[in-house]
């Protein structure tokens, strides 16, 4: 499926990364990377397992600190931010975890209510109910509201995880391997949902994946991460225009659907 043209403001970057380095002991994971995420853009960070993709979004969300370099998220410099400012910033960022991170002991309704009750204590019961119903409708799972996570399929859990991030109306979405472990048909559904979220909520998103189908279907731009650096940045066609490039060849070990 071809990615529809999005309404992107290339004059307004919501995330700026400059000279970013991160190591764990002797292992150099990120080696001086630069990147911008623009308002309204879906940006795919494409790389094989262990290349530092998840480390990157953990630094962006303040779960990890960089060794060197500057990361600015929605105007906040991550190396200067206070604990209180970080907490407030995280309410503006939606983080879709690879495993969906739902609470098994809570119904879908309670899972979705949790971030609202925790972060927006002034809301009335009617407002909470309305928010839950709206995000469930957005991900096409209104009928699951009173089900437990164990009763849901993998694709449904992924959708509910995305709904839980949307309930706070985030400005930025971070997707960590959104199609991992899903069958090909469900992967297509999740890719379509990511594009629907971009259009409906006007989010700016970073999508971490090793899946070429996901990258092609959702990415307005692709940033290929290899050996701790972005080797290529551009549209899918620009990144993969030379299939004989040794940096590109490993990705064609994966099958992907047109």
Structural write-up:
With 258 residues, this protein is α/β, with parallel strands linked by helices. The protein has a single domain, classed as P-loop containing nucleotide triphosphate hydrolases (Rossmann fold, 3-Layer(aba) Sandwich). The chain is 33% helix and 27% strand. The chain has eight helices and ten strands. The strands form two sheets. It has a six-stranded mixed sheet with strand order 6-7-8-3-9-10, with helices on both faces. Strand 9 (221-226) and strand 10 (229-234) form a beta hairpin. Helix 6 runs parallel beside helix 7. The chain is globular, with a radius of gyration of 18 Å.
Helix tally?
Answer: 8
Derived structural class: alpha/beta
Q: Please report the total strand number as a whole number.
A: 10
Q: What's the number of domains?
A: 1
Instruction: Tell me the CATH topology.
Output: Rossmann fold
The CATH H-level homologous superfamily: P-loop containing nucleotide triphosphate hydrolases
Main beta sheet: 6 strands, mixed
Beta-strand portion reads 25-35%
- Stretches where pLDDT is under 50 for at least 5 consecutive residues are none
Query: What is the architecture at the second tier of CATH?
Result: 3-Layer(aba) Sandwich
Please write the string of helix (H) and strand (E) elements.
Answer: EEEHEEHEHHHEHEHEEH
- The percent range for helix content is 25-40%
State the name of the first-level CATH class.
Alpha Beta
**Can you tell me the overall shape?**
globular
């Amino acid at each position: 499926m071809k990615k529809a043209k999005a309404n992107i403001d290339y004059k307004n970057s919501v995330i700026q990364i400059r000279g970013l380095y991160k190591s764990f002991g002797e292992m150099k994971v990120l080696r001086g990377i630069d990147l911008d995420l623009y308002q309204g853009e879906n940006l795919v960070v494409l790389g094989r397992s262990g290349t530092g993709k998840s480390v990157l979004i953990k630094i962006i969300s303040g779960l990890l600190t960089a060794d060197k370099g500057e990361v600015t998220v929605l105007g906040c410099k991550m190396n200067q931010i206070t604990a209180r400012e970080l907490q407030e910033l995280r309410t503006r960022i939606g983080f879709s975890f690879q495993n969906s991170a739902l609470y098994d002991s809570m119904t879908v309704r309670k899972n979705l209510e949790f971030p609202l009750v925790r972060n927006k204590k002034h809301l009335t019961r009617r407002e909470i109910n309305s928010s839950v119903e709206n995000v469930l409708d957005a991900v096409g799972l209104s009928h699951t509201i009173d089900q437990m996570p164990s009763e849901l399929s993998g694709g449904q859990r992924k959708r509910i995880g995305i709904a839980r991030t949307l309930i706070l109306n985030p400005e930025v979405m971070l997707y960590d391997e959104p199609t991992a472990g899903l069958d090909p048909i469900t992967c297509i559904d999740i890719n379509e949902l990511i594009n629907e979220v971009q259009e409906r909520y006007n989010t700016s998103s970073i999508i971490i994946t090793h899946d070429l189908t996901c990258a092609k279907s959702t990415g307005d731009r692709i940033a290929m991460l290899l050996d701790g650096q972005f080797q290529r940045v551009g549209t899918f066609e620009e990144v993969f225009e030379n299939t004989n490039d040794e940096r590109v060849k490993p990705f064609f070990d994966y099958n992907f659907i047109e």
